[in-house]
Amino acid sequence: MSLSGYEHGSSFVHRASPGLKIVSLIILGTLLFVVPRIELSVAALAGIILLYLLARISLKTAWAQLRPAMWVLLLIFIVQVFLHHWTVGVLVVVRLVSLLLLASLITFTTRTSDMIDALEKGFGWLYYFGVNPGKVSLALSLALRFIPVLASITGEVREAQKARGLDKSVIAIAVPVIVRTLKMADDISAAIDARSYDPGFEKKKSNSK
User: Fold this and answer.
1) Rg (Cα) of the chain, in Å, rounded?
2) Who's near 123: CB < 8 A, 6+ residues apart?
3) Which residues contact 38 (CB under 8 A, 6 or more apart)?
4) Rounded to an integer, what distance in angstroms lies between the CA atom of residue 109 and that of residue 9?
5) Is Cell membrane tagged as a keyword (predicted)?
6) What pLDDT tens digit does each residue of the chain (209 aa) get?
7) What is the DSSP string of the chain?
8) First-to-last CA distance in the chain?
């Protein structure tokens, strides 16, 4: 399985600046949590679905990102209904679905290298605090990339366990997903070490001149 979920395209969503996409995700996430309004969350979700269509990414692909999380979303909805009201449950679920779909859309329409470069430029000020922005950007870009990958892994594990009649068992699904995720993270770490990748190398090199 490839870590990159990038799907080639020429839409304006693909051509948009990686920095703009990341900032949009941050702004939308902030607004959805600061302004707890169902109509805002539904409008955001509708807008994100429209962006999928404009980017020519099928709704089937979008659904594939949500399907593994449906049981979790259902549990969250039930808890909110018991603790508060069904409208609160709808708000929370729609809000989480919107953020999940938007984060996935960013990974589908942005190359990993472009995302890392954009994040590194945005975090350039961290150098003044002794923090390497290259490593921070790498960590954040990998975190975004893991969203669709984890969804895919969960779907594969569920299908495999369904053949064994274990698709209703949370443990039977969670344990293989965790193991595969840790294995993938270890493989990525080994690949980075094998290539001697150091996000701060060029910066150190230029400062030494």
Assistant:
1) 19
2) 131, 133, 136, 137
3) 87, 90, 91, 94
4) 7
5) no
6) 334 466 777 788 888 888 888 888 888 888 888 888 888 899 999 999 999 999 888 888 888 878 777 878 888 899 888 888 888 889 999 999 998 899 888 888 888 777 777 766 776 666 677 766 666 666 666 666 666 677 677 777 777 877 777 766 767 777 777 787 777 767 766 666 666 666 554 554 444 44
7) --S-------SHHHHS-HHHHHHHHHHHHHHHHHS--HHHHHHHHHHHHHHHHHTT--HHHHHHHHGGGHHHHHHHHHHHHHHT-HHHHHHHHHHHHHHHHHHHHHHHHS-HHHHHHHHHHHTGGGGGGT--HHHHHHHHHHHHHHHHHHHHHHHHHHHHHHHTT-TT-HHHHHHHHHHHHHHHHHHHHHHHHHTT--TTHHHHHHHH-
8) 41
Place of tokens 């729609």: 94
